[in-house]
Amino acid sequence: MPKSPVTVIGLGPMGATMAETFLKNGHPTTVWNRTAAKAAPLVERGAVLAATPADALAASELVVVSQTDYTAMYDSLGGATDALKGRALVNLSSGSPDELRRAAEWAAQHGADLLTGGVMVPPPGIGQPGSYVFYSGPEDVLDRHRAALGELGDTTFVGADHGLAMLYYQAQLYLFWSTLTSYMHAIALLGTAGVSAEEFRPFAATTVSALAGDGPMGFLRILAETIDAGIHPGGANTLRMQAVGADHVVETSREAGVDTSGPTALRDLFWRAVDAGHGADGLSSVIEAIRAPAS
């Protein structure tokens, strides 16, 4: 059966890869970009370059937006709002949750349904095994276009609140960046003693794998259980003990002559939780300091 038409607004690395993926999967694909020249490679592959944003919106019910931010969407489509009526507007740009909620109101005012999304792979991963996208907003709109959107990656619906997709997206990014940054800090620390990154990598991999596992070191599971239960058992490994250990990481970094800002922030967070009365609790009690940030 013929594939449904799709319009892609924004042809940066992510948007261009999305448009190319739709084309490869047989969708009639219309594209529009503020710099029209970026569409040339896609036009050669069979895409139609819309002359105006209104023409781009008119070409397809499903309109995928991939731009720098939500302001770019308003700048691009603000003069073509009459053409938004009846469109499923799927914005996969980055922003803040409240910004996405306001965008949903803006779309609704012009007769469009907004699905917000967070793409959890870099451009080369679009459409590849393991790729997935968080979506939030009206689930019936996602269901109507799930086949087409599924060609970009697994469609992971997280709720009707338009801000949820971005909350998940930002949470995953923070986890990703902070994990890799701490890995780089560890490499720099060991590097002062002549240990190479490759020599350390197997040990780091063991730790990361163990954290995600079901064994006694499976702290992702352990923390999820204790935090959801609202209890933070300390036992023989209290938060105060770990805060003292964090002091030593800061001092070791200082002695080694590497940056101390990351370890210091972690150390200070631990001690703030201790000072709030959680010294005898376990590591999961740090969540209480995170939920009540310092003024």
Your description of this structure?
It is a single chain. This protein has 295 residues and is an alpha/beta fold. It folds into two domains: 6-161, Rossmann fold, CATH 3.40.50.720; 168-291, N-(1-d-carboxylethyl)-l-norvaline Dehydrogenase, domain 2, CATH 1.10.1040. The chain is 52% helix and 12% strand. It contains 13 helices and eight strands. It has helices at residues 13-24, 40-44, 53-59, 70-77, 97-109, 139-144, 146-149, 164-191, 197-212, 219-229, 239-256, 261-278, 286-291; strands at 6-9, 29-32, 48-49, 62-65, 88-91, 113-119, 132-136, 154-159. It has an eight-stranded mixed beta sheet with strand order 3-2-1-4-5-6-7-8, with helices on both faces.
Task: Give the structure's gist in a few sentences.
The protein has 295 residues and is an alpha/beta fold.
What is the typical, i.e. mean, pLDDT?
Answer: 96
Shape: elongated
End-to-end separation in angstroms reads 59 Å
The number of strands is 8
CATH superfamily of the largest domain: NAD(P)-binding Rossmann-like Domain
Helix and strand pattern: EHEHEHEHEHEEHHEHHHHHH
Overall number of domains:
2
CATH topology (fold) name of the largest domain: Rossmann fold
Question: What proportion of the residues is helical, as a percent range?
Answer: 40-55%
EC number: 1.1.-.-
Keywords: Oxidoreductase
Organism: Actinomadura fibrosa
Protein name: NAD(P)-dependent oxidoreductase
